[in-house]
Amino acid sequence: MAQIRLKDVSKTYKGGVKAVDKLSLGIENKEFVVLVGPSGCGKSTTLRMIAGLEEASAGDIWIGDRLVNDVPAKDRDISMVFQNYALYPHMTVFENLAFGLKLKKYPKGEIIRRVNEATEILGIEGIVNRRPKQLSGGERQRVALGRAIVRKPKAFLFDEPLSNLDAKLRVQMRAEIHKLRLRLQTTFVYVTHDQTEALTLGDRIVVMRDGKVQQCADPMTIYDKPANKFVAGFMGTPPISLIHGRIVKKERKYYFDDGKFQVKLVEEMYRIVAPYEGKNIIFGIRAEDIYDKLFVSEASPENTVHATCEVVEPLGSEVYLYLNSGKSSFIARVGAHNRPEVNRDMDFVFDMSKVHFFDPETENTII
Ligand SMILES: Nc1ncnc2c1ncn2[C@@H]1O[C@H](COP(=O)(O)OP(=O)(O)OP(=O)(O)O)[C@@H](O)[C@H]1O
Ligand SMILES: [Mg+2]
Question: What spacing in Å lies between the alpha carbon of 360 and ligand 2's midpoint?
């Protein structure tokens, strides 16, 4: 168990790539923090600096009360699990799990006790005598987790541990990591580029881009109150629709106008958008906040948008509709039985209390 703190940590690789840029972050004891962002944003580099596998170019890293900048990886008392689980192919599962403890010269009884405990936690007691090539992907992943667990570290660092698994197994292992976390009561730092994993696993999510933190908050805040257009666009499936247009004022009411449609803002937003009157703005609406007009009672001309349905994507439990207003594209999520024909013109109702606005220059959230 340990807190982890990073203060203004930067990493510039040889050749001048600035992978991490003045990153500051405090991770509480027993907290599960997820670092998420697109490929190359510096997630693995950050994790590897915490682990001691990469030296920070600037800044300080503490684990517990100890400044660890100059502490080698093996003395930091943390376990890291990688994407390619790197098991020893010539050893059985038991030997793979015991290997690190043997190197550290633990007594035999203690090694057996710890390995048994880990296999029980992970439900892999039945495969301890097999070698890695006799295991499924999910089982190999469990063994890799087991190798981290037996060390009883102060913190676990996971770098995309599920990305080698197929979609179904990934969902299953995600639930298992959740259980593991409840059982182990330790600090976790988990790297992924999968926003669903981030939203489901994290107590807090750190969204990164180009080596910088964009937002650090609990999952619901990240989803409902994104700090900027990037965070809004990165988190959520299907992605939030972002529509360029202008704010117009008519008879003391404010509207968003994309050039083809106009929707009225809710009054609570008037004061905040007032400085943008007549100016360009980016409007954001999530798929679940757009409804087929046939199914809503609160439709009015001021929140209804006429659009052509260009693509219908049935997903079993729901349907995504790819729509076009004649100027802008957006995506709605509707019920499984609502399957309009392609190229049909339809009316959609926007839940205007849920929409976002972004400044087109800074890309920061206005609402
Ligand atoms: N050893 C290295 N030498 C030089 N540049 C590197 C090195 N490792 C990473 N980089 C660069 O640093 C940046 C951040 O890399 P990093 O591996 O931290 O990204 P990431 O967020 O983990 O991406 P991914 O999701 O693809 O794993 C990238 O531009 C990458 O090309
Ligand atoms: Mg990586």
Answer: 30
Average pLDDT for 137-152: 91
Residue given tokens 């805040």 in the structure block: 221
* CATH at residue 219: 3.40.50.300
Q: Which atom of ligand 1 is nearest to the CA of 47?
A: 18
Helix (H, G, I), strand (E, B) or coil at 29: coil
Residue whose tokens read 């570290």: 153
Centre of ligand 2 from the C-alpha of residue 135, in Å: 25
How many domains is the chain partitioned into structurally?
2
- CA atoms of 231 and 200, how far apart (whole Å): 16
Shared-domain flag, residues 126 and 265: no
Domain end among 234, 255, 274: 234
Residue 350 lies in domain: 241-358
Any idea which ligand is nearest the CA of 194? 1
Same domain, 315 and 175: no
Regarding pTM above 0.85, the answer is yes
Which pLDDT tens digit goes with each residue over 184-203? 899 999 999 999 999 999 99
